[in-house]
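[Automated response] Your request has been received and processed.

Submitted sequence:
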Amino acid sequence: MIELRTPAEIDQMRPAGRFVASVLEATAAAAKVGVNLLELDRIAHEMIRKAGAESCYIDYHPSFGASPFGKVLCTSVNDAVLHGLPFDYALKDGDLLSLDFAASVDGWVADSAISVVVGTARDEDLRLIRTTERALEAGIAAARPGNRIGDISRAIADVAREQGYTINTDFGGHGVGRTMHGDPHIPNNGRPGRGLPLKPGLVIAIEPWFLQTTDRIFTDPDGWTLRSADGSRGAHSEHTVAVTDGDPIVLTARG
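Generated structure:
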């Protein structure tokens, strides 16, 4: 079921958005050469505890997950792009790291993701990250009344195709509210003018993710981490966005 939020309810979601943004800022800043993925998860876990927030991940067990996730932060490294389950791995110079985090504050959820390079960056990694960021910006710009879900999807896809990337539509954006994942589904490719009409009060997570040389993925033996089929690297950017009568509101804006 798709629910539209009142302006007052959108205001009530702002603390969750600010908190999720703060956790991503802290964990991205801590992602240095030699830092363990489990340490990044610990940082996020401690911030959740101090804020009195609730993790959306630790007990999360959808049909595509092998078991409850068990951690509070997704850490996807290099050829991993989504749902990266933190494990005993020390970050290396040049690693491409995607961090995805969702939490509930006072009963409202926000969801966001960021990709960074640890240490020395490759040009092709920076281009991939920037493309996901530009695609996210384009998707947000399309999140206006009068448009439809397909307009968001096509705006994302146009940016990816300009840079020569292909697009997987198995996983994409989604509704956000009292729970982390709800309707509508927002694929990263679509036809303009198609799909659900966008109305004020719709709150959605828009999340472009691309791989450098493929659009095919497989699930790691850990039962969660999604990796590229050809070993190429991936990047992921995401914000929680509220559709309004005017400009969209990015609830998880950082900085």
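Summary generated for your ticket: The longest helix spans residues 7-30. The CA atoms of residues 100 and 185 lie 18 Å apart.
If you did not submit this request, please reply to this message.
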